[in-house]
Amino acid sequence: MDSAVATETPLLQLRGISKSFGGVAALTDVDFSLRAGEIHGLVGENGAGKSTTMKIIAGVHSEYQGTMHIAGERVNFRSARDAKAAGIGMVHQELSIVRDLSVAENVMLGMQPVTRLGLIDYKAMYRIAEEQLDKLGIHVDPRQPIGLLPLGLQQLVEIARVLLSGARIIILDEPTSALSPPEVELLFAILRRVRDAGTSLVFISHFLDDILRISDTVTIFRNGRRIETAAVAGIDKHWIIERMIGAGHEELEESYTGEIFLHSRPDAPVVMTTEGLSREGMFEDVSLQVRGGEVLGIYGFMGSGQLELARALFGKLSLERGSLHINGERLRLRNTSDARRAGLAFVPESRRAMLFHLEPVYKNVSIAILGRISRLWVKPEAERAIATTHVRSLQIRPPLVNRPLGTLSGGNQQKVALAKWLTYPPKVLVLSEPTRGMDVGAKDDVLKIVRGLREQGIGVVVVSTEPETVLSMADRILVMKRGRITKEFAGEVVSKDRLLAAA
Amino acid sequence: MNSWLRSRLRNIAPFATLLVLVILFGSISPSFRTLDNLGNILQQISVTGIMAVGLTFVILCAEIDLSVAAVANATGIVVAYFTQQDASVNIANLALPGGVAIVLAVAASLAMGCVTAFGMNVIGIPSFIMTLAMLQIGAGISAMLVRGQIAYNVPDLISTLGAGSLGAVPWIIIVAAIILLAGHLVLTYTRFGRYVYMTGGNREAAEYSGVNTKMVLAAVMVISAVCSGIAGMLGVAHFGSAQQDEFDNYLLDSISAVVVGGTSLFGGQGGIGNTIVGLFVLGVLNNGLDHVRIDSFLKILIRGLILLLALIVNVYAQRMRTKAATTAVGA
């Protein structure tokens, strides 16, 4: 279907791009072209080469083989700044906004209008920012600190900034993963408007439905190669999945969306009980039970309080009211160390907050269990042995425990984050967004790990803003809305639309 | 630069600096390249070295302790305060047995460390400000106890360790070496040491791994204060007197030693090995500049420039290390 791609001079063209890191090929002979005024979806498993390709375009990686042309002109970016000057903007999954500054200051960051005295002209700044945001259909008060806005709006403001900086090509990395459905609608409306104004967009996502809805063209990566590029008009989800990972995995993605029967286990022993947990502005009066050998899903849109609740269950946020019992024993968590000793474990949604990027894999695995394997002296050999076991059983790639963690791909880092807690199984494991930003294959791996933990009798709590995550893993589902539990699904048939309807 | 070299710039640069300085001074000054002078250098860096051990812990946690010299001064004065002074010394001192005086002095440094830890962890004052206050408090304690006078006597044990020798080797060098070694063992081979590195490397991740990071921070502040206290007591014996403002240069020297040695100001990277190299760089620089008869005012400027250079290397090393370690395969 490559013939479907237009023959006019593309706005951006990569030819024969190859790139390797320390002898490991990350990209092999990749061709990629982006037309003016199109939205180009990019899909592929973690480590397939999407990010590396985009980093080359954005000037982050300056050493590679092959050529890059913009509007027919050969370019060779030495830095991200070069790329920016050439009109390439990137919106990362982790936003680069300044939370304490106002919306307008964020939009105009680095290009604030100044008065004749050289001072920042706030009046003009608010006016310009408001105009720009209005043009995109984002209606917010530009004087408001951006940190107070919902995440979705923060993201839109960041996109507005990139646009305002004069970008002709905007790369969006997983822009919808943290958004609620209405926010996704707003984002898509804005992206279309931007496209129609002539800007080209690259849309990287694991949400194939989103890719199919918003893109004009889709390119699929696998194992560092570009597998295929096609116009969206003639393809569907199956077609993409087949090329992303080969046959056999389709049922998995499907199973999230159809009707699912929840195999709840009301007879399983209760390991954790909470009563009336409250923390002002985050969650209110949360009472729940976690059973051993059961996966409890807690679903809610972004900002519903479930992510904060998860932190509180691990002692990272203190509780204002309510009680927490483990195996009938009342716990008072002063810090995370108390929680760990009580048999609680937690994996936060942000890998950056969980892992030590400069340290080797084995130290990342052992940090949570050092108290168990050593009293005074550390035992690196034992740590490596334990890490090696996990690396093997979780199929972490590359399987080298002495490698700095930062050199692993995102999905593999997430597995390391999980591996921390697997050596001495906790009583309750709380997972916050365990599969966010992961491809189908890695999600499947995480799912298997969670199922394995359930078999061991661990109470697993999966907290997420993605319905698919909860549906694929949970035996029982609680829905949170504005900080309160509003609905429980147990021992019944549930589907994505019913879940969304309850949230 | 290849990635192996890049990720080790932190360790290589200070060592190269040391080598250059030794070759430079060695070739200019014959009196520099003698065994006697090596002994001088070792003695000159011993007091700084003891302080720098505690500071290494603190800086590895991405914190700072500006009170080291003040705590050293106060502890040195406390031990002298509780020792019988000659009649000529006009201090209202309280003579106690030597062992008791030492215990009280160590307890004083411990208490100062605890106050710092309390201020940081319970009240939430950043270490920079909190230890700035402790600097003032330490100076205040020193001033109150000696009131502008000079005390000379310290307990026998302290004067042996600070000014005596075991055969040809001054005790103070031995003590410094033992404390440096102990610091190295703790940091490299103990669970607590690992927690220090992890807390410094990513405090949030350490917390999410169930590490009690506040305890780790409290411990490093106390360790730093006690190291300073020991350095202060031995320093007083080594210099032969206890007086106010005696240790003023040691704050900059000990921080410089840690940072010049390549321990990251951002935490999590470096160690006692780096600090030892840093101590030698400073020791050789200070000593070498004396041997080449340089304008003593220019000396100060040169030291400042060397420190600046080390800071630049420190920041670059961090950047390169991060780059080398996060260049993902694929992703």
Main β-sheet, spatial strand arrangement of chain A: 6-7-8-3-9-10
Helix content of chain A: 25-40%
Structural class of chain A: alpha/beta
Largest sheet data of chain B:
2 strands, antiparallel
Q: Whole-number average pLDDT of chain A?
A: 86
Number of helices of chain B: 14
Total number of strands of chain B:
2
Strand content of chain A: 25-35%
Folded structure, characterized:
The complex is a heterodimer of chains A (503) and B (331). Chain A has 503 residues and is of the alpha/beta class. Helices cover 33% and strands 25% of the residues of chain A. Chain A contains 18 helices and 22 strands. In chain A, the strands form five sheets. In chain A, strands 6-7-8-3-9-10 form a six-stranded mixed sheet, with helices on both faces. In chain A, strands 17-18-19-14-20-21 form a six-stranded mixed sheet, with helices on both faces. Chain A has a four-stranded antiparallel sheet with strand order 2-1-4-5, covered by helices on one side. In chain A, strand 1 (12-21) and strand 2 form a beta hairpin. Chain A is globular. By secondary structure, chain B is an all-alpha fold. Chain B has a single domain (34-321), classed as ABC transporter involved in vitamin B12 uptake, BtuC (Orthogonal Bundle). Chain B is built from 14 helices and two strands. In chain B, strands 1-2 form a two-stranded antiparallel sheet. Chain B is globular.
